[in-house]
Structures are given as structure tokens and as C-alpha cells.
């Protein structure tokens, strides 16, 4: 498994960057930014999933929209 661990320096695929921007905006608009505190963005590009279940749930919903 080739997992990308986001360390503020690694570059995610464009689709994942768009999702991160959306998620941050969405949580900020709803005053819920604390939900992302200390949440790692660990992404598995082979399976197109985040290893953090909380982020994966948001990603799944975003992918369906």
C-alpha cells in the first residue's frame, strides 16, 4: 500500500486537495473547525480512501455530490 501521509509538505493529488479545501471551508462556515484538530490526513491513493475514519466519512459524502 502506498499511503500518502500529509505533513504539510507532501503534495496530494488534485482531487484530494480540492476535497481538503472544501472540508476546511465547510467546517469553518459551520463553526466546527475543532473537528479537524489533530486529525491526520492519511490517504491511500490505491484504494482512494483516507485512513482516518472521520475524514473518510466526509470524503465519501463529498465524492457522491
How would you concisely characterize the structure shown here?
This protein has helices spanning 14-29, 53-64, and strands at 4-5, 42-44, 49-50.
Characterise the protein shown here.
By secondary structure, this protein is α+β, with helices and mostly antiparallel strands. 43% of the residues lie in helices and 11% in strands. It is built from two helices and three strands, in the order βαββα. It has helices spanning 14-29, 53-64; strands spanning 4-5, 42-44, 49-50. It has a three-stranded antiparallel beta sheet with strand order 1-2-3. The longest helix has 16 residues, at 14-29. The chain is globular, with a radius of gyration of 11 Å.
Keywords:
single chain; 3-stranded antiparallel beta sheet; 2 helices; 3 strands; 43% helix; globular
Mean pLDDT equals 82
Report Rg: 11 Å
Biggest sheet details: 3 strands, antiparallel
Structural class: alpha+beta
**Per the principal axes of the C-alpha atoms, what is the gross shape?**
globular
Distance between the termini: 27 Å
Proportion of helical residues = 40-55%
Oligomer: single chain
Amino acid at each position: 500500500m502506498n499511503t500518502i501521509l500529509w505533513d504539510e509538505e507532501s503534495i496530494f493529488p488534485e482531487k484530494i486537495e480540492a476535497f481538503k479545501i472544501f472540508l476546511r471551508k465547510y467546517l469553518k462556515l459551520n463553526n466546527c473547525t475543532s473537528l479537524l484538530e489533530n486529525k491526520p490526513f492519511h490517504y491511500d491513493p490505491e484504494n482512494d480512501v483516507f485512513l482516518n475514519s472521520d475524514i473518510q466519512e466526509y470524503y465519501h459524502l463529498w465524492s457522491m455530490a
